[in-house]
Amino acid sequence: MLMSNRxxxxxxxxxxxxxxxxxxxxxxxxLPVKWxxxxxxxxxxxPPWYSEDIEKEKEILHSFKxxxxxxxxxxxxxxxxxxxAHLIWATGAVSGELTKLKExxxxxxxxxxxxxxxxLHLTLARFRKEQFSSFPIQKFHxxxxxxxxxxxxxxxxSHLSSTGADYTCLDEVLL
Length: 175
Known about the structure:
This protein is α+β, with helices and mostly antiparallel strands. The protein has one domain (about 5-175): Cyclic phosphodiesterase (Cyclic Phosphodiesterase, Chain: A, Alpha-Beta Complex). It is about 20% helix and about 40% strand. The strands form two sheets. It has a five-stranded antiparallel sheet, with helices on one face.
């Protein structure tokens, strides 16, 4: 019997951006949230799906080797998603390079086109929706100027647990 893995495609952030995020969040230690760090902060390009053939997924990932580096910019930190906030995330404008890469990935992996437009975001923290009413800060729209170079693409394995999701890199390819 084959074991099914919950996988997704994402972009890692630079160590410089991780340091900026760590410095920024020091001012919000009063928020009752679970802050993400390291490999758990990434941009998701293809949302999770179940796969029984990791080697095939890796082969597709490697077809993107050398497609070209680009940068991402994040301009705002806010609660999200708007209708059912349970995250603190950084959002930014979607570049042409990012749009093209996402379209190529959707096609290569045989995924359906998403109905809603792609929203560039980095999840910084998670919280339970029912806790939100007790937060000391109810409105959150902070302007930022964060940038990161995108130099690789990762096939992640997503492990769900009662304490939240944890991600493991199954394979990485340099762009």
